[in-house]
Write a structure and sequence with these properties.
Length: 187
């Protein structure tokens, strides 16, 4: 993995990144559609985060720690759902959840590991660039940071998904992300 400054960084195994996952036209079209969605505040144990979300397929209740059915993944996300599925080498209907997150300037997402109900995570960035940071989940270790450009996508599986936590520091300009997740199947 090479950063924008051209320096190689040692990102956790299982993190993959694709620049230009979306064309500029696709990004514009998605930004128009996403801007009209009914974003809801993200609530975590009584705390209201600055970012807002819309959930499809499944929603996760952080109080009960359970997933429940949410509205179906909408048609306009289908082309990128299919593309994300091809990249992850799964069928598109194995992507069971889509979360669209709105980060107004000054919004972050704190350190977390995604809930264990899901397996692979594919995140697509719209609108502006941000950093994504990684640090080990249960041990000490340095923070590794990568730039997520608008129109890019990243995938988290394996070590990057399970042994690391990630965060996005406060964004400077409005950013949206579309996060697709597959269900975890216990082996
Ligand atoms: O905005 C992003 O790309 C990260 C989203 C994320 O980490 C999450 O929703 O759990």
């Amino acid at each position: 993995m090479i950063t924008k400054a051209g320096r190689p960084v040692d990102l956790p195994k299982g993190f993959e990144y694709r620049q230009d996952f979306l064309s500029p036209e696709e990004e514009q079209d998605l930004l128009t559609k996403v801007a009209g969605l009914d974003f809801q505040p993200f609530e975590f144990q009584g705390y209201i985060a600055k970012r807002r979300i819309v959930e499809y397929g499944y929603e996760y209740d952080f109080s009960s720690r359970r997933t429940s059915a949410a509205p179906a993944i909408p048609e306009f996300l289908n082309p990128i759902r299919v593309r994300a599925a091809e990249w992850a080498a799964v069928r598109s209907n194995e992507i069971v959840e889509a979360v669209i997150t709105e980060y107004m300037p000054g919004s972050p997402i704190g350190w977390h590991r995604d809930v264990p109900q899901f397996e692979a995570i594919i995140g697509i960035s719209l609108g502006s660039a941000s950093r994504m940071r990684f640090k080990p989940y249960k041990s000490e270790g340095k923070i590794i940071s990568v730039v997520l450009d608008p129109r890019s996508a990243y995938m988290l599986r394996g070590i990057a998904r399970w042994n690391f936590q990630h965060s996005i520091p406060t964004v400077k300009r409005l950013r949206y992300s579309i996060t697709f997740r597959t269900l975890r199947t216990k082996k």
